[in-house]
Amino acid sequence: MLGVAWGDRPVEFPAFGVDIEQRAVLFREYFEVIRRVLEREYPMLKWTAGVLSANADLVPKPLGRLPMLVTGNSGQPLSWVAGHAGGWTTSPRGIHPQAEAATRWRDEAHATRPGAFKPFVQSLYVDLADDAHLPPTPIHLGFRAGRHFLLSFLESLRGVGVNHVILNFKYGERPASEVLEEIGTEVLPRLADAHADKPAAVEPEPSDAEVDVEDTVAPQH
User: Fold this and answer.
1) CA of 136: how far to CAs of 17, 110, 149, in Å?
2) CB 123 within 8 A of CB 91
3) Where are the beta strands (DSSP E) in 36-95?
């Protein structure tokens, strides 16, 4: 899977000679450029940032159509994201707001391609404590807690329609290797045991030829 976004740091755009006010339009253009160079051999392309001639190519190519997941809305209507992307990655929210967001995504995805599986994905900052029973306290876009709360929270997210969670340990006090080991041995097996049904694989989009827990991870400002 490939995650794509339009950028949100104004200081970066002048470095590339890009007008930040044009980023929504450029996102759509570059999205199509990425799609074409991934799927066609020696494509001849011309776009606002340059030219790709017939004697140049991008290798290696993915096996099949690479799912491109849009992060946030990237300046696009959700209907555009659902129609062009292989899935949607969004910010963490409380359980009920995230359930509403997942439902909106499912409705849009179904409207553009009935029956296709396009995953709903969210990020989550986690500071996993040594004490497995430690209750949660908020941190930026996540929480500090023990593994028992993390497990129950992930189960709750799955229950409201979240398919994938991107764990970020940026604000963690423990070494990331220790946290990964604990999650891998103590959290993921129990998460799998609690729900035997496996999520469907990401279905490629059609080619061009085809047409409480609630407030724990509310964004901290």
Assistant:
1) 44, 35, 7
2) yes
3) 45-47, 50-52, 68-71, 87-90
Q: What is the DSSP letter of 140?
A: T
Q: Is 135 helix (H, G, I), strand (E, B) or coil?
A: coil
> What pTM was computed for the model?
0.84
Of 158, 153, 155, nearest to 128 (Cα)?
153
The two structure tokens encoding residue 37? 């160079």
Residue 209: per-residue pLDDT: 32
Residue type, 198: K
Nearest to 37 by CA among 25, 23, 53: 53
* Tens of pLDDT, residues 46-81: 999 889 988 899 999 999 889 999 999 999 999 999
Q: Which has the closest alpha carbon to 156: 207, 103, 212?
A: 212
Q: Which two three-digit tokens encode residue 211?
A: 């047409």
pLDDT (tens digit per residue) in 170-210: 999 999 999 999 999 999 999 988 765 554 444 444 444 33
